[in-house]
Amino acid sequence: MARPRRNATVIQMIVAMVVIFVPIIVITRLFTIDPEPAVNVVDYRPLAVVAAGEASFPVLAPENLPEGWVATRARWIPAGQRAVGGDPVPADTWQLGLLSPQQSYVALDQRAPAAPAFVEEVTRGGKAAGSSEVAGQSWGRYVSQDGRTRSLVGVEGDATTIVSGDLPFEALEAFASTLAPVA
After folding, report:
1. What is 55-71 written as a DSSP string?
2. pLDDT, average across residues 71-82
3. Structure pTM?
4. Are the C-beta atoms of residues 111 and 95 closer than 8 Å to each other?
5. Structural domains in the chain (count)
6. Domain containing residue 127: CATH number
7. Which of 98, 108, 122, 99 is nearest to 51 (CA)?
8. Is the pLDDT of residue 87 over 90?
9. pLDDT recorded at residue 46
10. Structural domain range at position 99
11. How confident is the model at residue 19 (pLDDT cuts 50, 70, 90)?
12. Are 76 and 19 in contact (CB under 8 A)?
């Protein structure tokens, strides 16, 4: 008769635990990994040209941005057309959103003629916080009510341009300095 091994029950218990826990760890790992969300990259240039041909104001877009910037949103909404929310916009509106190489979102919004409600909405209820001088143009600085979003608001003629993002004013100024009228 074979003699039972001395630590057979301990070894069997360890093997059983490995058999049970390895699949649990693998399954848990597979279902808890959050993949990096895919960025929806858009080519805004054709739409910017259309907007520039139809808008009642000079449509702006960035030129010569450093490598790594990508556009993720571009909208041209003529006055009276329905916006994303379904309500018609009261004036010609150009919107452009970009991601920086550091994954910071910067928005460019233009409207003419612009009402105070436009500035209130885009700056997220922002309060005036001084001014900036960018490429010879004066921009008002706004900080949202929660202190997170900063905006630069420029007025030229009856058009209002707003550059906003959750970035320092210096970064917004650098972005605003790249803006030029679309030909």
Report:
1. -SS--EEE-SPPTT-EE
2. 94
3. 0.79
4. no
5. 1
6. 3.30.200.100
7. 108
8. no
9. 97
10. 45-181
11. very high
12. no
